[in-house]
Design a protein that fits this description.
OB fold (Dihydrolipoamide Acetyltransferase, E2P); 5-stranded antiparallel beta sheet; de novo design (two linked rop proteins); alpha+beta; 10 strands
Length: 260
């Protein structure tokens, strides 16, 4: 009986091939690797890469790399096997810049930990590609960090929690916004928080804030990090990925305590 034919019915094995970003790589057995990628149509998707532990594939299987990924399995619910072909080694472009490497690692870890498996997020995939392009640009002032913070706001929206930074939650005003409620994620105008002002999160100037007493990058990462931790990762009973904490610590080490 020819392969794939059963009682006269042709059985089609599920498979796909797409451009992808590598999110994580874990050893599997002695010679293979469990690789998770993100694609426009397949979303976050895992597969077994045979020989993934070899030196030949070590440079290809790095979080942040752009690859052409092909996946195939006998049944849709199976782990399946994956083949990857390197398109661009993004981390290799940034070996001399630990902060930008930390940005790539943080984005990959957040996607890996927050997205449901096999759920398409084509818009978020495109935004992540654009973020990686931005991070790879020469920029001695680290202006890509603003883009990274905006990307995290987009990630929050993609997984179901959108901050409202357009008007004051107390007065409805659209001017003099200075804080964000740590509970609702809504903006609060300067002077409208009353006795709760000390509990508010700072709103960076590039997001509409007028009285941020911290550097925008430090305040922005604290803002998005708060909601990623409380609204996203807490739902899975896990902490923020260490890669994200490392990025925040590095930015705080450079800009912490500096107001602009």
């Amino acid at each position: 009986m020819p392969p794939g034919i059963l009682t006269g019915i042709w059985i089609t094995m599920p498979e796909w091939s797409e451009d992808a970003l590598i999110l994580s790589v874990r050893p599997h057995g002695e010679a293979s690797a469990l690789v998770t990628v993100m694609t426009p149509e397949q979303g976050r998707h895992a597969g077994l890469v045979r020989g993934g532990a070899s030196s030949k594939l070590r440079g290809t299987l790095q979080p942040g790399n752009r690859v052409r990924a092909s996946w195939r399995a006998r049944l849709p619910e199976q782990l399946g096997q994956m083949q990857v072909e390197l398109s661009q080694s993004v981390p290799a472009l940034l070996l001399d810049d630990p902060l930008r490497l930390a940005g790539i690692a943080s984005a990959c870890a957040l996607l890996e930990g927050s997205l449901p498996e096999r759920e398409p997020h084509s818009g978020l995939y495109g935004a992540t590609q654009a973020l990686f392009d931005l991070i790879c640009m020469e920029d001695s002032e680290h202006r890509w960090v603003e883009g990274y913070i905006r990307w995290e706001l987009g990630l929050l929206q993609a997984v179901g929690f959108q901050l409202d930074l357009t008007s004051c939650a107390v007065t409805g005003d659209v001017s003099r916004l200075a804080h964000v409620s740590p509970k609702s994620g809504r903006a609060v105008a300067e002077g409208a928080a009353g006795e709760f002002a000390g509990r508010m999160l700072a709103l960076p100037r590039f997001l509409g804030g007028v009285a941020c007493n911290r550097h925008d990058y430090d305040a922005g990462l604290s803002l998005t990090g708060h909601f990623l931790e409380r609204r996203v990762f807490a739902a899975y009973h896990v902490d923020l990925p260490p890669q994200r904490r490392r990025l925040a610590d590095m930015v705080a080490g450079i800009y912490g305590g500096l107001a602009v």
